[in-house]
Design brief:
This protein is α+β, with helices and mostly antiparallel strands and 210 residues long. It is 20% helix and 30% strand.
Length: 210
């Protein structure tokens, strides 16, 4: 798919993997998200699903029942863990982290309509968002979404869906979620890509630059 610019200044690419290490997959929304993510990570890094651990961590309250997803590879032979891959792409210390050659993993999730989207990136952070254009359009309020520099970029329902999904993807990458007001985020300041999506939906992907 050819690259093009649209009003939200996003870059459209059908395949992110060759340049970013990112892999996206769609599943039925009824699928178990943790199992789908673990299987996706295992396939990307070339290990068995039982060698992957996934979970959640809320940076605001510290809870593990909700928040941004993480994934890590475990060494099943001795039960030790290598570097823990987090949604921001950084490694945290664990048993064997100092000498581990395990890849740093960025992961993200999104749900909309009948779809569950999982994203895995080797070597960097990632945030993804999948949105139904009609649903975004029904509740659109530019004062709750647009940065001052983005005024007038919401001319069509598709533009509005891209803008909303782009903001969500960036906030997932940053780990703040909607605790950060969307108008504080200017999409042009982030590495943001649009990829092929089911009819009536948009998918935006935010990538860490380090």
């Amino acid at each position: 798919m050819a690259s093009r610019r649209h009003p939200a200044e996003l870059e459209e690419r059908e395949d992110l993997a060759p340049r970013s290490g990112a892999d996206l997959r769609l599943h039925p929304v009824t699928a178990d998200a943790d199992r789908a993510l673990a299987a996706h990570v295992a396939d990307v890094v070339g290990v068995q699903p039982d060698e992957i651990r996934v979970g959640r961590h809320c940076p605001a309250c510290g809870a593990v029942s909700h928040g941004r997803p993480w994934a890590r590879i475990v060494d099943t032979a001795d039960g030790s863990t290598g570097a823990r891959g987090r949604a921001d792409g950084r490694a945290t210390a664990g048993r064997g982290a100092a000498t581990s050659t395990r890849p740093v993993l960025g992961v993200s999730l999104s749900r909309s309509g009948p779809h569950l989207l999982t994203a895995v990136r080797v070597g960097g952070g990632i945030g993804v968002d999948l949105e139904e254009a009609a649903a975004v359009d029904r509740g659109w309020d530019p004062s709750l979404v647009l940065h001052p520099a983005e005024a007038g970029q919401d001319r069509t329902a598709e533009d509005r869906a891209r803008l909303w999904a782009g903001k969500e993807a960036v906030l997932k990458l940053l780990g703040t979620g909607l605790r950060t007001p969307m108008p504080e985020v200017r999409l042009a300041e982030h590495d943001l890509r649009e990829v092929a999506a089911p009819a009536g939906f948009v998918i935006l992907v935010a990538l860490s630059r380090s």
